[in-house]
Design the sequence.
């Protein structure tokens, strides 16, 4: 299938919309973009009009309105939809509707059946265990029997004792919950029955399902990821290395991502880090092959201080941090890898054209998420106007942003406060860290809120955290 026959609806906003537009242009594809009233000052709208003219962008009331998005697709003659990340990216019902409607479109992401299969965390855990892939210890299905649940909890406390964990913790969770709702920690088995009954009753009231999950609480872990890329056949499956996403806000939102996930050449670990990276990439590929994975995706892992990996979940979409993996990747010796372009090309049916032996890795990449927030106050988002945004133009750095650099920009309150992604490359960890701090020192970002108070950003926080990256 020739990608040149297609027109892609970019069903997202901001930085990821810009990167999708740029990828389409690099592939010779037509595109059409959407925007909301709040995003009239966004760079993704300006770029769409610059590259595609006035008919390349349509205003919608919401990025969450599937009917509006599909109406734009039909009106503009789009043949495919790229959901980016967030919004509809992991909604299997939307992906199914896109593919199976009378005027069918290509959903640029995994097939809806795969999204449904791997979007269910319990099902993912069960599938992993069937392949002898380690998962967070605990139940792999909702438990409705109190005695069975208590037995699982006792097993988890015993497991933690064997690991030498001084202060054991077990999580009791409503299986139908989400967003942190219906979760409590217990510190010894004597607490279990009381907490189990409370969570069970809460789950019944809130979710009409009494099912409860019992899991081990893992502390002091590192958060690693494996980047998977696959073609539509479900057989051409490769990985583009690992990432370390351990530096996060208090709300477990990533702030700095590094590729590769560990750097045993320059950092000493209490375990065989090179083998650990090989293990999690091998496990991720095995699971992708088992389900016939057919686009990009990320296998998310937590690693204990003793080097034990546990599969946490699978994200069936492109991720914010794909660019830091691309920064260290080479295909047949060539750099400038664009994983978003690969996602689009392969999603439209092109053959992969390379295999794992053609992919190599060079150096270290660091991705900084530049955000309007106050790290000293629990990362509270800052709202106001950006008056000046200047970034150094350096050969080893890339900046992805929807913030205009030639005009003031009012940060919309409707969306997250992410402003930019800065990706830095170095031949080794030491050089990447030095270049990273130098870059942040030259970054200028200023503005004021409605009271005239000075803009708050996380730039100083990012600089402080650079010294600790890839250390366990």
Sequence:
């Amino acid at each position: 299938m020739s990608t040149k026959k297609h027109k892609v609806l970019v069903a997202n906003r901001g930085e990821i919309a810009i990167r999708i537009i740029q990828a389409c242009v690099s592939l010779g594809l037509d595109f059409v973009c959407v925007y909301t009233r709040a995003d009239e000052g966004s760079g993704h709208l300006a770029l769409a009009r610059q590259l595609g003219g006035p008919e390349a962008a349509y205003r919608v009331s919401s990025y969450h309105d599937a009917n509006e998005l599909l109406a734009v697709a039909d009106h503009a003659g789009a043949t495919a939809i790229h959901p980016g990340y967030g919004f509809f990216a992991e909604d299997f019902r939307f992906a199914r509707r896109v593919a199976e409607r009378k005027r069918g479109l290509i959903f640029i992401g995994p097939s809806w059946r795969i999204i449904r299969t791997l979007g269910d965390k319990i099902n993912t855990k069960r599938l992993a265990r069937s392949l002898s892939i380690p998962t967070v210890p605990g139940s792999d299905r909702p438990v409705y029997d109190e005695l069975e649940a208590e037995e699982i909890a006792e097993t988890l406390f015993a497991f933690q004792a064997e690991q030498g964990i001084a202060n054991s913790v077990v999580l009791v969770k409503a299986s139908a919950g989400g967003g942190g709702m219906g979760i409590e920690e217990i510190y010894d088995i004597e607490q279990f029955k009381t907490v189990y009954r409370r969570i069970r009753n809460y789950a019944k009231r809130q979710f009409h399902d009494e099912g409860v999950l019992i899991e081990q609480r893992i502390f002091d872990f590192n958060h690693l990821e494996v980047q998977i890329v696959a073609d539509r056949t479900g057989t051409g499956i490769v990985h583009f290395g690992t990432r370390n996403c351990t530096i996060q806000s208090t709300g477990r939102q990533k702030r700095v991502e590094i590729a590769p996930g560990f750097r045993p050449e320059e950092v000493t670990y209490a375990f065989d880090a090179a083998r650990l990276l090989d293990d999690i990439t091998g496990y991720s590929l095995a699971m992708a092959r088992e389900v016939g994975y057919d686009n990009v995706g990320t296998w998310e892992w937590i690693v204990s201080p003793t080097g034990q990996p546990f599969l946490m979940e699978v994200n069936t979409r492109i991720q914010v941090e794909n660019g830091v993996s691309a920064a260290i990747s080479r295909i047949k010796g060539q750099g400038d890898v664009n994983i978003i372009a690969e996602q689009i090309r392969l999603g439209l049916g092109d053959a992969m054209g390379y295999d794992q032996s053609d992919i190599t890795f060079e150096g270290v990449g660091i991705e900084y998420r530049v955000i309007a927030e106050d790290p000293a106050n629990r990362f509270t988002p800052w709202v106001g106007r950006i008056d000046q945004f200047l970034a150094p133009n350096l050969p080893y750095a890339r900046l992805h942003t929807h913030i205009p650099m030639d005009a003031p920009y009012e940060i919309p309150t409707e969306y997250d406060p992410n402003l930019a992604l800065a990706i830095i490359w170095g031949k080794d960890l030491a050089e990447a860290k030095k270049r990273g701090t130098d870059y942040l020192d030259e970054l200028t970002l200023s503005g004021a809120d409605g009271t005239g108070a000075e803009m708050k950003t996380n730039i100083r926080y990012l600089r402080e955290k650079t010294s600790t990256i890839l250390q366990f």
